[in-house]
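Notes to self after the Tuesday call (sharing in case useful).
The group wants a holo model before anyone commits to mutagenesis around the pocket. I volunteered. Ligand is nicotinamide-adenine-dinucleotide. Logging inputs and output together so the record is complete.
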Amino acid sequence: MTQVAEPRSSGAPAPAGGTGAGSAIGHIHHWIGGQIVEGASGRRGPVYDPATGKIAREVDFATADEVGAAVAAAKAAFPGWRATSLSKRTDIMFKIRNLVEARRKELAAHLTAEHGKVPSDALGEIARGLENLEFATGVPNLLKGNFSEQVSTGVDVYQIRQPLGVVAGITPFNFPAMVPMWMFANAIACGNTFVLKPSEKDPSASMFLAELLHEAGVPDGVFNVVHGDKVAVDAILDHPDIAAVSFVGSTPIARYIYETGTKNGKRVQALGGAKNHMIVLPDADISMAADAAVSAGYGSAGERCMAIATIVAVGSVADPLVAAIKERLPKINIGPGTDPAAEMGPLVTKQHRDKVASYLDSGPAQGATVVADGREHPLYKESEGFFLGASLIDYVSTEMDAYRDEIFGPVLTVIRVDTYDEAVRLVNDNPYGNGTAIFTRDGGAARQFQFEVQAGMVGINVPIPVPVAYYSFGGWKSSLFGDLHMYGPEGIQFYTRAKIVTSRWPDPGTSKIDLGFPRTR
Ligand code: NAD
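Result:
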């Protein structure tokens, strides 16, 4: 492991051109103890520009020793950071917030360059991340304990919440800025130190954030970034000095992280994949429902864990709704993020794009009807980038692959059912339970849905009900392993533990030995 540069000089390669330190193409290293540190093993992964299909840079893959170095830096920084006053920590959180806001366009450029999302979507992601930084500036209020005076004669009891120590975050490719902010904002505001293992597919945003945190005055070692694959993840899960792990990603990996992390005695919250249903009742406003379905189905090329994947069309609404969605699809402007008019970009890798496109074959082979085939889009045929046009599959049923799998791309499926009860049963029988939505003009039906649906986040005429930062984010069933949701109040709970103090200040001369169990009455 070699330190290669002073902070702020070249942590995150320039998004265009990608000429980072030490290599002909950009080369992304780790961030440990406030410094850029080059991986020593030589293991690296490619980082693509999804709009061109070319390898734009490479990222170091950490060894267990390199993860260990990051944990050691975080452990060394912990005593000083947890002792830093709440007002100083708040001041730093404000500074981070202001720097991210001021430099959001540069951050967005990293997202476009490596994830492929268009600038408007990248800026939207950052805006939602900023909400978490804003929430964390309220940490003095959020960490207030409570106090019970005179629980017995001259005895008081109070609860304080203290940080856990070194905590880690493992994040997915689809929100390379927002999901790390979901985690580290509350974690460090509460006094923990942090090791981030971002997705190896789009790692530059985390390096840029590390530089901003450094500039904001976060002490060295409080925030560290190690890149890599399963080797780095397993080193985090096995490390005895890591107290807690927050994970966001696919369900099989979430389950693995939860089982391994908790077996090793860590506190774990592991958010998994999704299959989000949007029920449209016959009384819904068709135009509003079709606009919502298109925004929520194809925004960010469908690579959102809260994307609508399946429309459940109830009764007579199906034909006009499918027609209204179909009519809107050719108007979606698909292109690279460098095109200011583009509304939807490419998918993250060729492998993923091809898997997503494969449902346009398996769907009809299993009896569904392809209404719009994204492979007909010129960019799918002619570009080297990982583009796929907006696709729509109708007459899907629950045993088909297009329904059973999380497609995670711009392929929206429609299931037709006869009744509301059938629609809700379908949602509740699905193994995932992240988000769901209902579109109706009937308040009673909406309330009944909110009451009985098995999902963690529910939208009523709102297709992507991502909670604001002062609530918490989490799904049910296979969409979340662990009991605390992410960010917001439950995030504060996750990153702190309670200490209950029972205190007595006796008058001199009143002390006596009592071998009985303490009683308050
Ligand atoms: P992923 O599970 O492939 O990767 C997530 C993280 O786990 C990455 O950092 C990756 O390096 C690591 N990882 C991958 N394979 C691993 C392995 N075998 N062992 C150990 N670590 C491994 O997920 P992704 O493709 O990056 O992201 C998309 C998935 O994330 C989708 O399923 C999506 O629904 C989900 N997601 C969920 C939420 C949520 O809040 N529930 C939010 C965003 C994304």
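Two things stood out.
Confidence is low (pLDDT under 50) at residues 5-13, 15-23.
The CA atoms of residues 299 and 344 lie 6 Å apart.
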